[in-house]
Amino acid sequence: MNIHEYQAKGVLREYGVPVPNGVAILDAAEADAAAAKIPGPVWVVKSQIHAGGRGKGKFKEADAGEKGGVRVVKSAGEAAANAKQILGKTLVTVQTGPAGKQVNRVYIEEGSDIDKEFYLSALVDRATSRVAFVVSTEGGMDIEEVAHSTPEKIHTFSIDPATGVMPHHGRTVAQALGLSGDLAKQAGNLVTKLYAAFVGKDMAMLEVNPLVVTKGGELKCLDAKISFDSNSLYRHPDVVALRDETEEDAKEIEASKYDLAYIALDGTIGCMVNGAGLAMATLDIIKLYGESPANFLDVGGGATEEKVTAAFKIITADPQVQGILVNIFGGIMKCDVIARGVIAAVKAVGLQVPLVVRLEGTNVEEGKQIIRDSGLNVIPADDLDDAAQKIVKAVKEAA
Ligand code: GDP
Ligand code: MN
């Protein structure tokens, strides 16, 4: 689960991490009061969307002005005017795709006098099973490009969970960023606090770009991006409260209500599969036969008829879907439950596109009989290969 920059800064502030002060607004009517709360002399007006690259982004609407999604200004009046100008407008960045994202929240923040910009991130490193930190002097810019062309400028180390952050980690960061004296001490404190925040809130990723040194000699997080491990949300109601559903795919939100592992993709064939491995194989084989999947969907092992019905409704509600492939290998999952769920969903929402069903395993005969008795126009398939070929052929013929 992702959150906005201003929320991420709020989480980090709880752990004593140095971040600038600011006020977030959702309504242009709040802009003047928000800007007046920041003392100046510099204000930063920041578009809040779940995508990076805002500084270099461009608004679609001409009346949003020429400047990007992050604006540095010299008076409270200008800050408020810019906030009003960009609220509700659509920002296009390298991460939003060409459609862009509507800016529904704006963060007005105290400006910092930047001396140097660095990069810092923390993530769960599966290779070492530890939290790893990545730091670089090349902040503010495209870190992927730095990693590609000058990998020696990227420094990585991981934290042993048994000891936590040790003084030598602080020294590693200070050395990598060329910091000495008090700034080196600040770097050590920062890593300690960021690690505490990361572990305390079950983060999956934390990115600070840029981490800056101000002209006044302070280390500060000027940007913050956090994503949390979704499997841990049950123990963090405060994090769940930060969720902004307008930033998420509506189909994925609906799927999460039923505890379905669903990810929207951009192809034409809707897939309902049980088991993540079989779901991946199903996506691959659809590609092999020349079409693209519209989603990844794992209904799980113990899905109920209700859950299957919900899953099928989510697939059919996607206007991109031109055909549906149900591919179930019944182990714990029972084929008759799947069959009943599919039929219940079709009865509720109708079926405008070809449907191929491949059932195998527990209660397979019962499942097939239920589908035959339903009188639905279902194309039966015997195995995965046959199923993929049939749905691709049906979609091509219907087009
Ligand atoms: P992003 O483009 O979405 O990553 O948004 P950032 O929060 O990183 O802001 C983009 C850029 O704006 C930063 O890299 C900084 O160069 C600049 N910026 C952000 N805050 C300030 C500030 O307080 N003062 C100054 N001078 N520049 C800032
Ligand atoms: Mn940034």
UniProtKB/TrEMBL annotation:
Cofactors (names): Mg(2+)
PROSITE patterns (alphabetical): ATP_GRASP, SUCCINYL_COA_LIG_3
Biological or metabolic pathway of the protein: Carbohydrate metabolism; tricarboxylic acid cycle; succinate from succinyl-CoA (ligase route): step 1/1; One-carbon metabolism; formaldehyde assimilation via serine pathway
Ranges of residues in domain ATP-grasp: 9-241
InterPro entries: ATP-grasp, ATP-grasp_succ-CoA_synth-type, ATP_grasp_subdomain_1, Succ-CoA_synthase_bsu_CS, SUCC_ACL_C, Succ_CoA_ligase-like_bsu, Succinyl-CoA_synth-like
Complexes and interactors: Heterotetramer of two alpha and two beta subunits.
Gene this protein is translated from: sucC
Binding sites annotated in the UniProt record for ATP: 46, 53-55, 109, 112, 117
Enzyme class at the top of the EC tree: ligase
Function: Succinyl-CoA synthetase functions in the citric acid cycle (TCA), coupling the hydrolysis of succinyl-CoA to the synthesis of either ATP or GTP and thus represents the only step of substrate-level phosphorylation in the TCA. The beta subunit provides nucleotide specificity of the enzyme and binds the substrate succinate, while the binding sites for coenzyme A and phosphate are found in the alpha subunit.
Source species: Ancylobacter novellus (strain ATCC 8093 / DSM 506 / JCM 20403 / CCM 1077 / IAM 12100 / NBRC 12443 / NCIMB 10456) (Starkeya novella)
NCBIfam families: PRK00696.1, sucCoAbeta
One GO-annotated biological process of the protein: tricarboxylic acid cycle
Protein name per the record: Succinate--CoA ligase [ADP-forming] subunit beta
Classification lineage: Bacteria, Pseudomonadati, Pseudomonadota, Alphaproteobacteria, Hyphomicrobiales
Family note: Belongs to the succinate/malate CoA ligase beta subunit family.
Chain positions recorded as substrate binding sites: 274, 331-333
Entry EC number(s): 6.2.1.5
Cofactor note: Binds 1 Mg(2+) ion per subunit.
GO cellular component, as recorded: cytosol; succinate-CoA ligase complex
Residues annotated for Mg(2+) binding in this entry: 209, 223
This protein's UniProt keywords: ATP-binding, Ligase, Magnesium, Metal-binding, Nucleotide-binding, Tricarboxylic acid cycle
Listed PANTHER family: SUCCINATE--COA LIGASE [GDP-FORMING] SUBUNIT BETA, MITOCHONDRIAL, SUCCINYL-COA SYNTHETASE BETA CHAIN
GO MF entries: ATP binding; magnesium ion binding; malate-CoA ligase activity; succinate-CoA ligase (ADP-forming) activity; succinate-CoA ligase (GDP-forming) activity
Gene3D superfamilies listed in its UniProt record: ATP-grasp fold, A domain, ATP-grasp fold, B domain, Succinyl-CoA synthetase domains
Reactions it catalyzes: GTP + succinate + CoA = succinyl-CoA + GDP + phosphate; succinate + ATP + CoA = succinyl-CoA + ADP + phosphate; (S)-malate + ATP + CoA = (S)-malyl-CoA + ADP + phosphate
A Pfam short name: Ligase_CoA
